[in-house]
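pinging the channel bc i need a second pair of eyes. not urgent but kinda urgent?? the chain im working w is below, pasted from the shared doc
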Amino acid sequence: MKLYRLFLLLFLVAFTGQTFAQSSSELKKKKQAIQKEIDLLQRSLNTTVKGKKLTLSQINALNTKISLMQSKIDVINAEMKNLDSQIHENTTIVHSLKDQLAQLKLQYAAMIRFAQKNKNAYSKMMFIFASKDFHQAYKRIKYLQEFSRYRKKQADFIQGKEKNLNYKIVILDKSLKEKSSLLQEQENEQNKLGKNKEEQAAALNKLARQEKQYKQDLDSRMKQRAQIDKSIQAAIRREIEIAKRKALEKARLEAARARAAALAKAKAEAAALARAQAKARAENKPVPVAPKVKEPEEEPVKASSNYLTATPEAAKLSSAFQNNRGSLPWPVASGSITEGFGRHKQGQANYDNSGVTITTAPGATVRAVFEGKVTTVRTALGSYFVLIKHGEYFTVYQNLHSVSVSPGETVSTKQAIGTMSSGGSPELQFQIYKGSVPQNPGGWISR
């Protein structure tokens, strides 16, 4: 039972250790990813903070950076929590291993003393010859052999146990050092967060002083955004209208074919009846009454209400896009969402964002998030926007400095479609529409 409990303990330790290692590895990756976003935003702030006039981009970048720093501290806390759990478990294991090792050594010492008392061959022979019968003598011989083997096995087991104990002590020491390092990192991050919150407070004070000018700039920017969104909506409506015309034209052709087939069938039946009448007259039999051939009435043309998925290819592409909800790649290789989807408030101003604003690196390559067809490439207020159709879904990429695709071109997932500005703080406006209804891209792109 002791051995069983020992093996069970070692199994649980190994399983827990593996789970901890995976969790710790995931947390480290998450922390590194957050730090990359923080560094990117800091570079962006460094290039824009020189200006005397406060901008919406600066405020959004600063707010996002503070939020990311708090997230990083949360990750560090989670790492320390995991580490505390591991330290506690390893401490328990070390104490348990020490107790077990001491017990094993006592048992082994007793075996050695017994073996010393019966080490000469005469004692062993007397032990065997004192048996009542041959069967008992055989059993005693096997016992002596097994005892010798067991003693050697116990010696090896004790050595293995000591190695395991030493290994656990090393791991425990390493965990304690790592915890000390994490505590120092946490303290540093808390200090950085405090300084950034001071910077945020200073920015808000500056905003209060420049509120009139800032509101004018914000109003101007929102008007520009609304103007671009209006162009995008018009382009989407145009695509829906084109799809509708094609679907109705297809439905008309199918209806015309059906009418022609029905008319041909009616005429064939009339001709067959006429032949039957002529034959009846020739044979002086009752003549069948000929029904009047009536031309099929033209019925109203009907087509699917969802014109964007009227073809099998479009329906398949739309379904594939839908199935990738939550796992679409980002439209840029690196970046941070500095303004989310929906309603926002800055000071006294309220405005809507039909997508998400992603602050990225200067000159960053913009990529298609899914395969589809480019329907629109247009300039708007000094930059480009690209509209890509994916069945009944559309993706929009705004504020591009240059484009590398043309209308009518088919693109693949992650294919480059353009680049961002190489200076300042480039912000990609990314939108997703289902038909003409805007969707929250945050729920579609991969975390």
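so The CA atoms of residues 319 and 391 lie 8 Å apart. and The chain has six helices and 13 strands. — does that match what u expected or am i reading it wrong
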